[in-house]
């Protein structure tokens, strides 16, 4: 994808995932009692900066996956949360440059829970080892064309589930979605 006219975010399926990402960042900030700032570019390699008391506290990548937690835990070839290694290479660099840790958050849509991994500390040093391999994966959420690329597999033992209040923003966002349907 070389120009913004071919971004998956500009497709109908992509727009659905962008809406999910918007709801996810609201839920993250509500749970972590922080604010967020974006990068201002749909093609950026990270999605948001988390800000608390005026300070950059973390850089995050947000994904939405049509999965349950059980299905994610059932992946075994290789096991782990699959993400493009390019995202992690960028995450390492930006963590080091900004002096803020890099996290990957994933909303598992079928369970409507948010899981996350702290991948790099504020010096860009990996928190844990993760395997990478060149594998064939779907090019975009819209285009089912397969491409070969280096992917990383984040070990699930390093995954955490975001704690959310039962009657918090998650239920408010859900009510708003139900009314639109």
What does this molecule look like?
Helix content is 29%, strand content 31%. With 181 residues, it is of the alpha+beta class.
Uncertain runs are 1-6
General shape: globular
Helical residues, percent: 25-40%
For the largest beta-sheet, the strand count, sense and barrel status come to: 6 strands, mixed
Order the strands across the largest sheet as they lie in space.
1-2-3-5-6-9
Strand content: 25-35%
H/E element string?
A: HEEEHEHEEEEEH
Tell me the structural class.
alpha+beta
Tally of separate helices: 4
Using the CA coordinates, give the radius of gyration: 16 Å
Number of strands: 9
Distance between the termini: 32 Å
Mean pLDDT rating: 85
State the gist of this model.
The protein is α+β, with helices and mostly antiparallel strands and 181 residues long.
Secondary structure elements and their pairing?
Elements: H1 12-32, E1 35-38, E2 48-52, E3 55-65, H2 69-74, E4 81-84, H3 85-98, E5 102-108, E6 113-120, E7 132-138, E8 146-154, E9 160-161, H4 169-180
Parallel strand pairs: 3-5
Antiparallel strand pairs: 1-2, 2-3, 4-8, 5-6, 6-9, 7-8
């Amino acid at each position: 994808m070389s120009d913004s006219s071919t971004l998956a975010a500009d497709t109908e399926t992509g727009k659905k995932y962008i809406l999910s990402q918007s709801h996810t960042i609201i839920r993250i900030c509500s749970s972590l009692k922080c604010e967020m700032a974006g990068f201002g570019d749909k093609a950026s390699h990270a999605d948001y900066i988390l800000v608390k008391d005026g300070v950059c506290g973390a850089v995050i990548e947000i994904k939405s996956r049509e999965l349950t937690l059980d299905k994610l835990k059932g992946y075994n070839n290789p096991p782990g949360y699959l993400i493009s290694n390019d995202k992690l290479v960028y995450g390492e660099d930006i963590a080091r440059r900004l002096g803020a840790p890099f996290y990957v958050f994933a909303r598992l849509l079928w369970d409507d829970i948010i899981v996350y991994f702290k991948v790099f500390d504020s010096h860009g040093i990996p928190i844990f080892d993760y395997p990478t391999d060149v594998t064939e994966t779907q090019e975009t959420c819209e285009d089912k064309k397969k491409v070969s690329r280096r992917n990383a597999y984040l070990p699930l033992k390093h995954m955490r589930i975001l704690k959310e209040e039962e009657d918090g923003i998650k239920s408010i966002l859900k009510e708003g979605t139900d009314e639109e349907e």
